[in-house]
């Protein structure tokens, strides 16, 4: 067992008045999550009915293009939504049966870092430039665990070591700008793991990194996840990364999960035209001269959503009904849904 | 997990090092390490095998000098196969200075250090490599935004580094750039018409004033935008549409060469394909040559005929793109390609993945000899002592700057 998890046993956070957790309930259960932004341009439903579960030791990918609601989903789960203008207007986010949305501010704060932790895309802006890396890591232990400065520093070195930063004892007093992009992302991971969370949300953790560094980071994440049996929620727009590491996938489009399934099923036989088109529009490093199919047009503006299916203006299969009726979540199979009226007509390429 | 760490990889058999091509030591009298830069004769050898045998050796010797008057004469159309762009021994060192009053040079960032490239008409040369390896500096040198420390850049046989004034301006017309970020590269206060037509203000002879509006509308149409939107501002367009505006602007002067620095990196996957297909269409219609810089190796595989892999300011592998993707011989290329995730869960864990240790060294203080040696699992003493030349090696038809170049398929699953 790691040092960090042993340490956690010493001082459990106070959970006064908090509902009892049910250890047989799923690790994380998001049900019909609704988030809206009230802006001058109108109300934007950034997340509109997201539902999924995440079990310990599993990886769920949330895939979608920019603006589809991935980060807002993560922020709502983490309890760090920018409010105002953002509001959770419905749904539940349960950790072992306890709806975190119903907890008070203090109970929620105590869960951040120790139950759910998050890694952000842009490590440089997530780290404070005026404090050393060691100080920022140590702060987790001083604030949450009441450790002395000296002990916290020792923990910080252990964490840097854990994320395989060479010469951790020397680097602990460096400032973020003295680290390379890949190393800063490791520091972010160290910080997220400090309080030994059960759920780790990684929001585009490698998007800003080179492919060889991305490989290092993904490998590190996968190892740490296995070691600690964390549930990993991986937010990405990269279908290659998903194929490499995820067990399950939720494909988001304009605030909705349009298709959700175990990874292998989606790639083999997508059951939504959007997923299928995406798969056909990405070039592959291992294939020569494929035709790239194009998804015409642009995603809709959230404040001016088309009636019916939100993908209809771009869908090669769209029919009259699509412009009138929003497709519900059809059960394609156990563990598998599609929001397309004609899901059974979507065939693999 | 079946991922192999670089260190576990079994050593491959070393081909004999050809003593004739090993440079003498690590640098010349000026302190500039010219090892990786094949001098012109070697450049010719490189090029001869870099393509698929279609062309003749390119360097120096056979260039036809087109004498250029400063009046705008339409340049003669080159046959496919002739070089529109030739880069020889290109070097850019940014001085590192110290002191405020008396600025002393204390070192140099070797951003580009001896690069040779050839680009033929209608051809796409992909340039890949990690952040900081010198891709954008190379593009800036070619477009004239930076002055080279040394080396030559020939466009249709004319050396841009020697031209001045009107001649330079005229020659520059032929090589234009599409930038990475469609959000910041367009002036928000200018209309689309002004943006695309701006090059005509500098090169006033290209289109007569009264014909410019119509020409801009033709360009909008060419890149798939509505010609009626000529009076709109950039913020009224999406990222993909803005990139089309950037392309239309680059095409205004009817260049033969388009430098694309990460042209689709800022775009969403569903929009990327639109822009890639547009670039391919324009190449077919206009016979354009592309220098396509990108860190996305899948996109480059899709679009490039020829490939140059850069590491710390140098090209380490160069030649036919298909050949390099299928059988890279330089360890760095192998590591780079093996790290690209393939969107097929059936292949998970089956790739011959090489995970590199450590970071790229600083270009202000690069390792001696082979610059990749600090991260290379095949490195031997000779790698620190002798700079491997970029040249064709045994068993492979394309050029590789590795003493121990050896083919290895890394992008396909090993069944
Ligand atoms: N004006 C400058 N002064 C000093 N150093 C510079 C300058 N411009 C670039 N460099 C350095 O030259 C090296 C190459 O930079 P360049 O921008 O060409 O990299 P790149 O390959 O385009 O990277 P990326 O993939 O991040 O765009 C880097 O180490 C960079 O810091
Ligand atoms: N603080 C905010 N204020 C207003 N709108 C927001 C805010 N944060 C996100 N949004 C909107 O919510 C939608 C989803 O955003 P996000 O979840 O960040 O997308 P992504 O899938 O790229 O992570 C977008 O339309 C975005 O503009
Ligand atoms: S419901 Fe209609 S428009 Fe929507 S994805 Fe299915 S076929 Fe396309
Ligand atoms: S020459 Fe460079 S790449 Fe080749 S084996 Fe030596 S260190 Fe590695
Ligand atoms: Mg996001
Ligand atoms: Mg660059």
UniProtKB/TrEMBL annotation, chain B:
It comes from the Bacteria. Keywords: ATP-binding, Nucleotide-binding, Transport. Residues 1-14 have a biased composition (Basic and acidic residues). It holds the Pfam family ABC_tran. The keyword ATP-binding applies. Residues 85-337 form the ABC transporter domain. Residues 1-77 are annotated as: Disordered. InterPro entries: AAA+_ATPase, ABC_transp_ATP-bind, ABC_transporter-like_ATP-bd, ABC_transporter-like_CS, Oligopep_ABC_C, P-loop_NTPase. Residues 24-67 have a biased composition (Low complexity). The keyword Glycoprotein does not apply. GO terms for molecular function: ATP binding; ATP hydrolysis activity. GO terms for biological process: peptide transport; transmembrane transport. Belongs to the ABC transporter superfamily. This is Dipeptide ABC transporter ATP-binding protein.
């Amino acid at each position: 067992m790691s040092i960090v998890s042993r340490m956690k046993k010493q001082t459990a956070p106070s959970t006064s008045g908090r509902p009892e957790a049910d250890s047989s309930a799923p690790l994380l259960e998001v049900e019909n999550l609704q988030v809206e932004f009230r802006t001058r341009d109108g109300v934007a439903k950034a997340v509109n009915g997201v539902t999924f579960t995440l079990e310990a030791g599993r990886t769920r990918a949330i895939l979608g293009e920019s603006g589809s609601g991935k980060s807002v989903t993560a922020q709502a789960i983490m309890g760090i939504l920018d409010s105002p203008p953002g509001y959770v207007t419905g749904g539940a986010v349960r950790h072992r049966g306890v709806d975190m949305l119903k907890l008070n501010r203090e109970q929620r704060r105590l869960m951040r870092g120790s139950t759910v932790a998050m890694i952000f895309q842009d490590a440089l802006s997530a780290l404070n430039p005026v404090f050393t890396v060691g100080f920022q890591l140590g702060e987790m232990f001083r604030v949450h665990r009441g450790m002395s400065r000296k002990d916290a520093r020792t923990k910080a070195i252990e964490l840097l070591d854990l994320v395989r930063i060479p010469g951790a004892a020397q680097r602990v007093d460096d400032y973020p700008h003295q680290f390379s992009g890949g190393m800063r992302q490791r520091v972010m991971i160290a910080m997220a793991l400090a309080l030994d969370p059960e759920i780790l949300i990684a929001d585009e953790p490698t998007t800003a990194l080179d492919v060889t560094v991305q490989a290092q980071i993904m490998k590190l994440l996968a190892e740490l996840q296995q070691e600690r049996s964390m549930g990993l929620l991986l937010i990405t727009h990269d279908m290659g990364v998903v194929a490499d590491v995820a067990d399950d996938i939720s494909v988001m489009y304009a605030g909705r999960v349009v298709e959700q399934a175990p990874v292998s099923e989606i790639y083999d036989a997508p059951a939504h035209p959007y997923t299928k088109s995406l798969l056909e529009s990405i070039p592959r490093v291992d294939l020569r001269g494929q035709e790239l199919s194009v998804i015409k047009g642009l995603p809709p503006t959230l404040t001016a959503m088309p009636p019916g299916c939100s993908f209809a203006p771009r869908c090669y299969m769209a029919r009259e009904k699509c412009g009138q009726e929003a497709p519900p979540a059809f059960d394609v199979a156990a563990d598998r849904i599609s929001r397309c009226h004609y899901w059974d007509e979507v065939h693999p390429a | 997990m079946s991922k192999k760490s670089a260190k576990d990889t079994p050593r491959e058999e070393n081909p004999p090092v050809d003593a004739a091509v090993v440079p003498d030591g690590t640098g010349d009298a000026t302190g500039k390490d010219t090892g990786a830069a094949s001098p012109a004769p070697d450049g010719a050898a490189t090029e001869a095998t870099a393509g698929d045998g279609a062309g003749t050796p390119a360097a120096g010797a056979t260039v036809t000098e087109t004498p250029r008057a400063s009046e705008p004469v339409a340049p003669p159309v080159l046959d496919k196969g002739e070089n529109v762009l030739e880069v020889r021994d290109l070097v850019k060192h940014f001085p590192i200075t110290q002191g405020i009053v008396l600025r002393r040079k204390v070192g140099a960032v070797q951003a580009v250090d001896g690069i040779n490239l050839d680009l033929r008409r209608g051809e796409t040369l992909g340039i890949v490599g990690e952040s900081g390896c010198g891709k954008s500096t190379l593009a800036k040198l070619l477009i004239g935004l930076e002055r080279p420390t040394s080396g030559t850049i020939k466009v249709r046989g004319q050396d841009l580094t020697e031209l001045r004034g009107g001649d330079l301006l005229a020659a520059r017309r032929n090589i234009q750039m599409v930038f990475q970020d469609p959000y910041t590269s367009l002036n928000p206060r200018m209309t689309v018409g002004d943006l695309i037509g701006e090059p005509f203000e500098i090169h006033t002879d290209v289109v007569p004033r009264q014909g410019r509006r119509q020409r801009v509308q033709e360009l909008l149409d060419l890149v798939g935008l509505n010609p009626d939107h000529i009076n709109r501002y950039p913020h009224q367009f999406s990222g993909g549409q803005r990139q089309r505006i950037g392309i239309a602007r680059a095409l205004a002067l009817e260049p033969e060469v388009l430098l694309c620095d990460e042209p689709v990196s800022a775009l969403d996957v569903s929009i990327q394909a639109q822009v890639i297909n547009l670039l391919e269409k324009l190449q077919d219609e206009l016979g354009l040559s592309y220098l396509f810089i990108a860190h996305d190796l899948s996109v480059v595989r899709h679009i490039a005929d020829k490939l140059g892999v850069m590491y710390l300011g140098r090209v380490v592998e160069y030649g036919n793109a298909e050949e390099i993707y299928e059988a890279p011989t330089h360890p760095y290329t192998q590591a780079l390609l093996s790290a690209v995730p393939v969107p097929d869960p059936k292949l998970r864990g089956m790739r011959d993945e090489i995970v590199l240790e450590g970071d790229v060294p600083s270009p202000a203080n690069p390792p001696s000899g082979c610059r990749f040696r600090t991260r290379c699992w095949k490195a031997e003493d000779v790698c620190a002592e002798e700079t491997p030349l970029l040249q064709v090696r045994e068993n492979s038809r394309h050029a590789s700057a590795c003493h121990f170049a050896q083919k290895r398929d890394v992008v396909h699953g090993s069944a």
